[in-house]
Amino acid sequence: MRARRAVLHAAGALMVATLCLGAYGLVAPQSAGLPSSADGTNADAVLSDADVRRVLRDYGMGTYCDVDRVMRDSYVIPGLKMTRTLDADGNLSTCTTMTPQGVCVAGRCLLVSAYCHDRVHDSVIYRIGLKSHRLEGVIVLDGTPHVGGLAYDAEHDRVWMCGYREGKNGGATVSSLKASAWEYYDASRADGPCAVEHTYYIPTLAHASFLTVKGDRLYVGDFSDTRSSRTTIQAFDIEKGGTLRQADRDETMADLQKVRSDGYLESVEGLEPEDDTVDVRNTRVMKHVVKDAARSHGDMPVPVDGALINGQAQGMALVRDLCLLSQSYGLRDSRLRVMAWDGGAWNNDLRNARAWATFILPPMMEETEVSGGRLYLCFESGAEAYRWQDCARVDRVLVLRLKDVVGG
C-alpha cells in the first residue's frame, strides 16, 4: 500500500511538472533558432522560404527565371539574429544588428560582409561553404567600417574590401586580405581582428562603395544617395605581387595629363554623333579625377581608367562586353541595370539612360557578383534595423543563372 502511494505521488508530481513546463512554453520567449556555428552566430533564416518565394513572384522573377531553382541555389545570410564578434574594447561580444553589404565568391567560399548598425561592434565577413551552403566561420574586421564591397583576386589569392579613412583628410580606402589570414580565421582563438595586408587611400574617390576585379584591374565605385546625380567608377592596376600600382602626386598627375593630351579617342556609340569621337580632356570622369588628384599629398594608387555612373549604385559586375550595376536606396524598389561595356578608355558612359535592360527587384539590394555563370545578389532588408519597415524583405543572397538575365 505504501509503495502504491509513493507511485501515485510520483505520478502526480510528474503531471504537475509537465503542466508547469507546458504553461511556461505558452508565455516564455520562443527560441530564436539553434546556431549552427560553434561561436554562437546563428545560421538559420529570419524569413520563411514561403515568404521569400512570395516576394520573388510578386516582383515578376518567374517570368525570366525559375523561382524554385533560385530558392534552392540561394544562401541564407547568417548572423542576422546574432553574430559573435568583438566590441570596442576587443572583447568577444554578441551583436544583434549586423547589416549585410558586400558579396563575393572566393575559391570554395562565398563571403558576405556586414557592419553593426549601432556602430558598437566590429564589422565582419561571414565565410560560407560555396557547395555546402553552411556557415564555416566569422571573420572579424578592425573597427566599424561599412564594408560596402568585397572582391576576390583569384590570381593573387587576395580579398579586397571597401573602407573609409576618418579625419581631416578622410576619404575612400580599399584594403586587401591574404587567404592565409582569413581562410581559417577564428575570433575565439585569435588575438584580435583579422590582419589586413595593405590599405590604400584613394583621394580621387569620395567613397568606396563597391568594387570588382577584372583581369589585372581593380574597379572601385563611388556612391551618392541621389539617383540622378553623377559619380564615377575608377580602375587601378594590380601589380604582379597583388598590390596596387602607386605613385606620388606629381607622377600621377603626369600620367593623367598624358591621357588628356592624347586628345580624341573613339567614343561609345551615340556619345558624339558628329564624328564618333570624344575629347578625353573634357570628359567629366577625367575632370573629376584630375581635380581630386591635384589636392592629394604623398603616394596614391594611380587611376588608369574610369566610367561615368549615376547615383545610388551599390554593386558592379563585369562579364563579356556587359556591365551589371545594382542600384538601390531606402525603401524604393532596387534596379539591376545591364549596360554595354567596351573595356574603358576613359569614355564609358554607364548612366541610367544607357541601360539596354533594367530589372526591378526588391528594395535594399546591395552588392552583386558574377561567378561560374551565376549572378549573386545580396540584400540588407533582413537586418534587425529594417524588420519594422513596410517593404518586401529578402534575407538571402539570391542566386540566378546569368543566362536568364543577359542571355546565352
Could you give a quick summary of the protein structure above?
This protein has 408 residues and is α+β, with helices and mostly antiparallel strands.
Number of helices: 7
Mean pLDDT value = 84
Order of adjacent strands in the largest pleated sheet: 12-13-14-19-23
pLDDT below 50 for ≥5 consecutive residues: which ranges?
Answer: 1-36, 266-275
Alpha carbon gap, first and last residue? 84 Å
| CATH class value | Mainly Beta
Estimate the strand proportion: 35-45%
Query: What share of residues is helical?
Result: 10-25%
What is the number of domains?
Answer: 1
Radius of gyration: 25 Å
How many individual β-strands? 27
Indicate the structural class: alpha+beta
The largest sheet is:
5 strands, mixed
- What's the CATH topology name? Neuraminidase
3D shape:
globular
Assembly state: single chain
CATH second-level architecture? 6 Propeller
Walkthrough of the structure:
Helix content is 19%, strand content 36%. The protein is α+β, with helices and mostly antiparallel strands. The strands form 8 sheets. It has a 5-stranded mixed beta sheet. The chain has a 4-stranded antiparallel beta sheet with strand order 1-27-26-25.
